[in-house]
Design a protein that fits this description.
The complex is a heterodimer of chains A (113) and B (111). Chain A is mostly beta strands and 113 residues long. Chain A is 0% helix and 58% strand. Chain A is globular. The relative contact order of chain A is 0.32. With 111 residues, chain B is mostly beta strands. Chain B is built from no helices and eleven strands. In chain B, the strands form two sheets. In chain B, strands 2, 4, 5, 9, 10 and 11 form a six-stranded mixed sheet that branches. Chain B has a five-stranded antiparallel sheet with strand order 1-3-8-7-6, with no helix packed on it. In chain B, a hairpin with a 6-residue loop joins strand 9 and strand 10. The radius of gyration of chain B is 14 Å and the shape is globular. The relative contact order of chain B is 0.34. Classes of the chains: A mainly beta (113), B mainly beta (111). At the A-B interface, strand 5 and strand 10 of A face strand 5, strand 9 and strand 10 of B.
Chain lengths: 113, 111
């Protein structure tokens, strides 16, 4: 257990509403990631962070923004949710220094109606 | 062409059988990851390897860097091994380690 929690775990929302997902870690790891997982596409990187206020885009970043004001929290925001953003979202952390494993949070299931 | 290809996509076997899942990739890498995801469950890191072989219990992972190929083996398979197995390779800048994932192999072990 790498001390990663995600909230909420489940959310149903309507098209056009803003949504924020939170990833929280307890071990002060530098790198944090947001992925989405969809049937037929597998896991894909949305955004990642390499430190407080340091973030960069991943493969499928359109329609998403992120913020990291504290080491322990990495927020993913959908400014105006669309049905195509219905997915399971996973947060992950990585211990710094060279090649190392990523440890995943429990996931958030988001449904946009 | 996907950067990471897994085969087979689905695999059904009987309890006790020896299982092999394959992963091929097209980019140069520093290490390859194997992950496990149980139905409705979270994602667990099984192995990260950059050369040779690693073993953890009944699971064995091998990698051939020159051939850009890795295999995950399960010996004496058990119904609790039923899960999706995913391989992933890092791309981009070394520090960022942005992972690209295979589509996953859905393994079902029948008692």
């Amino acid at each position: 257990d790498a001390g990663i929690t995600q909230s909420p775990r489940h959310k149903v929302t309507e098209t056009g509403t803003p949504v924020t997902l939170r990833c929280h870690q307890t071990e002060n790891h530098r790198y944090m990631y947001w992925y989405r997982q969809d049937p037929g596409h597998g896991l894909r990187l949305i955004h990642y962070s390499y430190g407080v206020k340091d973030t960069d885009k991943g493969e499928v970043s359109d329609g998403y923004s992120v913020s990291r004001s504290k080491t322990e929290d990495f927020l993913l925001t959908l400014e105006s949710a669309t049905s195509s953003q219905t997915s399971v979202y996973f947060c992950a952390i990585r211990v710094s220094g060279g090649a190392s494993e990523q440890f995943f949070g429990p996931g958030t299931r988001l449904t946009v109606l | 062409k996907n950067e990471v290809e897994q085969s087979p996509q689905n695999l059904t076997a009987q309890e006790g059988e020896f299982i092999t899942i394959n992963c091929s990739y097209s980019v140069g890498i520093s290490a390859l990851h194997w992950l496990q995801q149980h139905p409705g469950g979270g994602i667990v890191s099984l192995f990260m390897l950059s050369s040779g072989k690693k073993k953890h219990g009944r699971l064995i992972a091998t990698i051939n860097i020159q051939e850009k190929h890795s295999s995950l083996h399960i010996t004496a398979s058990h119904p609790r091994d039923s899960a999706v197995y995913i391989c992933a390779v890092p791309t981009g800048v070394q520090g960022a380690q942005k992972l690209v994932f295979g589509q996953g192999t859905r393994l079902t072990i029948n008692p």
